[in-house]
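Changelog-adjacent note: as of this version, every example in the card shows the full chain rather than a window. The one below runs 219 residues end to end.
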Amino acid sequence: MIRRLVLMSSVALAALLLAAPIAGAHVDVDPGEAVAGTTVTLTFSFRHGKDGTATTALEVLLPSGASLVDLPAVEGWSSELDEVTGTITWSGGPVPDGTLTELPAVVQLPSSPGEALFKTIQTTDAGELAWIEEEESEGEGAYPAPRLTLTADPAGTTTAPPTSTVPTTPSTERLPGTSLEAEERDDGGTSAAPWVIGSGVAALVAVGAGGLFLKRRAG
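Full-length structure tokens:
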């Protein structure tokens, strides 16, 4: 029975939905709204069985992204988790029709906001009820899945990375009479010393040559 929600064929599903409807019968989940990604205690409840008969089991399929944290004990019921299918099953009772029954589970909720469906099969003395419809409908013949609205974390904020002052880098524009060639240092960096020294030597040579030229003219 544990794998039925996952392996159920479309033909079997149609047969379940065409079974005698129960006015006002639902499986609900409380709370109906929670923050996405949080861990909360969800309580699945029902009051009626099929055709007024007693309920003997409830099987809930966890939505994608959800995981079971704990299954609190409930008097008169046994519970188990199928980790492969992500299905929780409670067996017990029988609970007479018209008796409110609440079955809790501590669940880690999916992290994305939206609507999470907890498709459920209710087993009664008169057969099964498949509360698996994705549409949220009411009235006779409607079998909506228990659903939970996941909201965004109100404390969650998007923080922009801090701005930093970037130091101004020297221009690499080539200047007249200079060279931007640099030699590699031992530490992997570069040094501008060669072209600075080269420029200084060139200036001294120019001054010396000018002085020699003037001296020759004076002689």
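Structural remarks: The mean pLDDT is 74.
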